[in-house]
Design goal:
The complex is a heterodimer. Chain A is an alpha+beta fold. Chain A is built from 13 helices and twelve strands. The chains are: A alpha+beta, B alpha+beta. Chain B: It comes from Aquimarina aggregata.
C-alpha cells in the first residue's frame, strides 16, 4: 500500500469505482493492524488487506482464503471507497468505512465547530436563532463537493447560506445555483486598439464580485505597453496612474481566460475547481483547501488568493449572488474571474463588458453562429496568449 | 526467428498502436474545431437579454445580414423636433430678429474644406439629416450618415467588433449607435484619469 493510494481514496469525484490501489490499510504503522503482523508464512496477496478502522470485520477478511480473488477485490474496493462514490452530504462523511487515521483527521477538523454547535444547540439559555445558526454551521461543515451535489442538495446549501447571512447580518441576499445552459460556450474578445486604460472594468468587477477592499484584490489587470514593442509583460506597467491613454502606449487587459483545457483544474488535489459545460472554470470556495497549486499552474496569472478574510462594507455588497460566483469568500481560498457567472448565465453581459466605455470588450456564445463573438473570430485577425501551451483559452485579442 | 513469431510481433505492434493513438483528452483537435462542430445543430437558447434593455427605447435596424436594435434617438434630443423653432428655411432665419441658438455647438470634425453644417443638415428640412447626395436620413438612423466616410468602422460595428453592446449577450442584440459615444460635432474623445489606482499593489512591490 503506497502512501499515494490514500489520497486516491478521497477522490470523491470519480463516478466509477477506483481500480487502482487494491484496498485501504491502516496506515504505515506496522503494529496497528493484524494484517501487517509480519507473518511471513502467509502468501503475498495478503498485503492488499482491508480497512481496520471503523469496521473490525475488514481486518479479519484475509483469514478467509475461500474468498475468490475477484470477489475479494470487489469487496475490498467496496469497503474502502464504494459507498463514497455514490453518496453525498452527511452520508459522504458518515456512511463511509475509513481507517483510523482518516477518521481522526475528519473528526479533529470538525471538533471545534462541532463542539460549539452542540453546546449552543443543546443549551437551554441560547435563543432559537443561535440554535439555527449552529445547525446551519454544522450542516455546512459536512456538505459534499458542489460538483457532486444533486439539484436538491444545491438548493439546500444555497438556502442555508442565504439564511446564515440573514441571521448574521440581518440583510437579505439572493443566491442562485443556476446550471450551465445547453448549447452555450462562453467566449470573450478584447480589442487592444480600443482599450484606453480607463480601468472602469476593474472598478465594476470589484463592485460586482465583492472583492476584498482591504487587500484591493482585482481579477482584471490592465497592462500599459509601449507601442511597437509587442507584448512585453515584464516591461509593462499594470499599475499606472496618469492621464490615459498615454502617448505612445497601448493597453491590454488580462483576467481568467477560462481555458478549454485548463491546467489549474488538473493540478487541484481536491477537485475544488473544474470546467463547467458552458466553458466557465469555477471554484467551490467551500471545498478549496487553499494550497494554491492552481495559482502556480495558471500560465496567465488569472487566479487570486485570499490572504485575509475578504471585507466589503455592508452597503457596497452586491446581493445578487451565485454559489460559484460572487458570494462572500473566506480566508485562505482561491478566487478568480468567473465571467460574472451570476450575470452571464441569465443572459446578461459580465460587469466588465457593461462598464467598458470603449466597447473593447466583447462577450458572447461561441456556439451561436450569429453571435458577435463569432463574427469577430471569423472576420478580425485574432490571437490568444501563449497559444502554444495548448490550454485553449477562450479569450481572444484583436486589433481594428 | 520463425515466420509465426514475426506475425505475432507485428500484430502485437499493430494492437499496441491501435490503443496508443487514442488520446484521452477529447474528441476534437482544437477549440476551433469543437466550436464549429458543436454549433452545427444550434437551435437557440432559452435565455434572452430582453429584460436588460426593457427600459430603453430602441429601433430595429437591418444592415446587410445583420439585424439588431439601436437606441431610439429623436426622443433623446432635447430640442427635437427642430421645426418647432426652424419654422422657416434657414436663410430667412438669419439676422437679429430671432433668438440666438446652438452657441454651444462648434464643429470640430474633419476640416472646414471637407465638412460644414450642411454636410449633414438640410437647411430646408431640419427634422431630417441629409446624405452627401442630398437624400433624407432619419435622425434615428444617423449611422447611415457616418458610414458614408467611416466605412471600415461601419463594417466592424455591424458585425459587433466596434461599438458597445447593451444589456446582454443573448438575443435580441442591442448595440449603441455612433452618436451614443461620439459627439458628431466633436467626435474626438478626450483623455482622462483612470478610475482607480491600486495602492496595495505599490506596497506589495516595494
Amino acid at each position: 500500500m503506497s502512501g499515494i493510494g490514500k489520497y486516491f481514496k478521497l477522490n470523491m469525484n470519480s463516478a466509477t469505482r477506483q481500480t487502482t490501489g487494491g484496498a485501504c490499510s491502516c496506515g504505515n504503522t506496522s503494529g496497528g493492524c493484524g494484517s501487517h503482523s509480519a507473518d511471513t508464512s502467509e502468501p503475498a496477496p495478503i498485503k492488499s488487506s482491508c480497512g481496520c478502522g471503523s469496521d473490525s470485520g475488514g481486518c479479519e477478511s484475509y483469514n478467509k482464503p475461500e474468498m475468490g480473488d475477484q470477489e475479494f477485490f470487489e469487496a475490498a474496493v467496496d469497503a474502502s471507497i464504494g459507498q463514497e462514490t455514490k453518496k453525498d452530504g452527511f452520508d459522504q462523511v458518515f456512511e463511509v468505512k475509513m481507517d483510523r487515521r482518516t477518521a481522526f483527521r475528519k473528526l479533529t477538523a470538525s471538533l471545534m465547530i462541532g463542539a460549539g454547535a452542540v453546546s449552543t444547540s443543546c443549551s437551554v439559555t441560547s435563543g432559537e436563532e443561535s440554535k439555527e445558526k449552529a445547525q446551519i454551521d454544522w450542516e455546512e461543515q459536512f456538505k459534499g463537493n458542489y460538483k457532486l451535489m444533486t439539484d436538491e442538495e444545491r438548493n439546500a446549501t444555497v438556502n442555508r447560506l442565504v439564511r446564515s447571512y440573514e441571521l448574521r447580518k440581518k440583510e437579505n441576499i439572493t443566491m442562485k445555483s443556476t446550471d450551465a445552459l445547453k448549447d452555450v460556450l462562453f467566449g470573450y474578445a478584447f480589442n487592444i486598439s480600443k482599450c484606453q486604460g480607463y480601468m472602469d472594468c476593474v472598478n465594476a468587477c470589484v463592485e460586482e464580485n465583492n472583492q476584498d477592499r482591504n487587500s484591493q484584490m482585482q481579477y482584471i489587470r490592465i497592462h500599459e505597453m509601449k507601442d511597437g514593442e509587442g507584448f512585453k509583460f515584464n516591461e509593462a506597467d499594470d499599475n499606472y496612474y496618469h492621464e490615459v491613454p498615454a502617448e505612445g502606449h497601448f493597453y491590454m487587459g488580462t483576467q481568467c481566460f477560462h481555458c478549454d483545457n485548463p491546467p489549474c483544474v488538473d493540478v487541484c488535489p481536491v477537485q475544488a475547481t473544474w470546467r463547467e459545460d458552458d466553458g466557465l472554470v469555477v471554484i467551490d470556495y467551500d471545498w478549496c483547501v487553499g494550497c494554491r497549486y492552481c495559482m502556480a499552474a495558471c500560465p496567465y496569472d488569472g487566479r487570486r488568493f485570499n490572504w485575509s478574510t475578504p471585507e466589503v462594507p455592508e452597503e457596497e455588497i452586491n446581493k445578487n449572488q451565485h454559489y460559484l460566483g460572487n458570494r462572500m469568500r473566506k480566508k485562505g481560498v482561491m478566487e478568480k474571474c468567473t465571467f460574472c457567472v451570476q450575470r452571464s448565465r441569465s443572459g446578461k453581459d459580465p460587469a466588465c463588458v457593461e462598464a467598458c466605455p470603449t466597447g473593447a470588450r466583447i462577450f458572447g456564445n461561441l456556439l451561436d453562429p450569429n453571435s458577435t463573438i463569432r463574427w469577430v473570430l471569423a472576420n478580425k485577425k485574432v490571437f490568444r496568449l501563449k497559444e502554444d501551451l495548448g490550454t485553449e483559452p477562450k479569450f481572444w485579442y484583436f486589433m481594428d | 526467428m520463425s515466420r509465426q513469431n514475426y506475425i505475432f510481433l507485428l500484430s502485437c505492434i499493430f494492437i499496441f498502436m491501435l490503443f496508443s493513438c487514442k488520446h484521452g483528452e477529447g474528441e476534437y483537435h482544437s477549440l476551433t474545431d469543437k466550436i464549429e462542430e458543436k454549433s452545427k445543430d444550434y437551435h437557440g437558447i432559452p435565455v434572452s437579454s430582453e429584460p436588460y434593455i426593457d427600459d430603453l427605447k430602441t429601433v430595429e435596424i437591418t444592415e446587410g445580414e445583420h439585424t439588431f436594435l439601436i437606441p431610439e434617438r429623436k426622443s433623446q434630443i432635447t430640442s427635437y423636433a427642430c421645426t418647432e423653432c426652424h419654422s422657416k428655411p434657414l436663410e430667412q432665419m438669419k439676422g437679429s430678429d430671432f433668438k440666438k441658438a446652438h452657441w454651444d455647438i462648434g464643429l470640430v470634425h474633419a476640416n472646414k474644406v471637407t465638412m460644414n453644417c450642411a454636410t449633414c443638415h438640410n437647411g430646408n428640412n431640419m427634422d431630417n439629416l441629409q446624405s452627401l447626395t442630398g437624400n433624407s436620413i432619419d435622425f434615428n438612423r444617423s449611422y447611415k450618415l457616418c458610414s458614408q466616410c467611416h466605412s471600415q468602422q461601419f463594417e466592424d460595428w455591424k458585425g459587433g467588433a466596434h461599438g458597445k453592446n447593451i444589456g446582454g449577450w443573448a438575443d435580441p442584440r442591442a448595440a449603441m449607435t455612433c452618436v451614443n459615444c461620439h459627439n458628431p460635432h466633436k467626435p474626438h474623445i478626450e483623455s482622462r484619469w483612470p478610475s482607480r489606482f491600486n495602492t496595495q499593489k505599490v506596497k506589495e512591490r516595494e
